[in-house]
Specification:
The chain is of the alpha+beta class. It is 23% helix and 26% strand. The protein has a seven-stranded antiparallel beta sheet, with helices on both faces. A two-stranded antiparallel ribbon has the order 1-13. A two-stranded antiparallel sheet has the order 5-6.
């Protein structure tokens, strides 16, 4: 049913085409000021970089989701974020053309959560919190995955950032396989990933998890993840640096006591 769509995006492939580096519009969010670089040109159709206060996204008008979000996560901003109540101000992104963006109606009665890439719980003030609720920062996410797997991962990253002082974080979807679903006009990712780079330790690693509530949590090198998704996620690092594994916290998959209070 979605052959023509899949033919256009082909998000997973064994061969990655060389892509030209582009200057980031919001370099502060990226390691060494360099945004991820799309190596598979089929991913680059109808893309647009969007800059927000404490994160940036690369949005795809084909999937109607972000291809990634990027954050420079600082301990001082997380301290400010702790005092904010969740606002739930979900909204379509007005900077995107209507024919390329997700709408609230796409998610209505879909059975999927509107899953943040840059988490609400990382936002230091009301303005950035509202920005995080743009659908340009969302993917359709299995509800159990969101609450029982992804929320603990996000909490672990916040704890790690408080300890390290600063982290660079890239979060994104992967669209693998030939039986992808849509909710409304929005493509449902098969997997989600979160890359963490520690400037202090000069090392990185990634969580990579299928988009279902009982999926096992994988921790893989950035180099391997880049091969899977067809995007050079940390282009300023050498191949050797991308193979070096940052020790990530072990995640205990659990059910939150009150899912509505999870700051995801």
């Amino acid at each position: 049913m979605f052959r023509s769509l899949l033919a256009r995006i082909v998000l997973a492939g064994a061969m990655l085409a060389a892509g030209a580096a582009q200057a980031a519009s919001c370099p502060v969010h990226y390691l060494d000021g360099r945004a991820p670089e799309i190596r598979n040109p089929k991913l680059a159709t109808a893309t647009r970089e969007l800059c927000y206060g404490v994160f940036g996204v690369m949005h795809s008008g084909v999937t109607r989701t972000p291809l990634w979000s990027a954050e420079y996560l600082r301990a001082d901003n997380l301290e400010r974020a702790e005092g904010l109540d969740r606002d739930n101000a979900f909204h379509a992104e007005p900077r995107l053309p209507q024919g390329q963006r997700a709408e609230l109606s796409d998610y209505a009665r879909s059975g999927f959560d509107r899953g943040h890439l840059a988490p609400n719980g990382n936002m230091p003030d009301r303005r950035t919190q509202r920005e995080s609720f743009s659908l340009a920062n969302m993917v359709p996410q299995d509800g159990a995955h969101n609450r029982h797997i992804w929320a603990p991962i996000e909490q672990a990253v916040r704890k790690m950032a408080r300890r390290e002082g600063e982290l660079y974080v890239i979060t994104g979807p992967a669209f693998l396989g030939t039986s992808l679903r849509k909710v409304g006009n929005v493509l449902v990712p098969s997997h989600l990933y979160k890359v963490v780079y520690s400037p202090r330790q000069k090392a990185a690693a990634a969580w990579f998890v299928e988009n279902r509530g009982d999926a096992p949590i994988q921790v893989i090198p950035v180099a391997e993840l880049e091969r899977i998704v067809g995007i050079e996620l940390l282009p300023s690092l050498s191949q050797q640096q991308k193979e070096r594994m940052l020790r990530l916290p072990k995640i205990k998959q659990r059910k939150p006591r009150n899912a509505n209070q999870e700051r995801t």
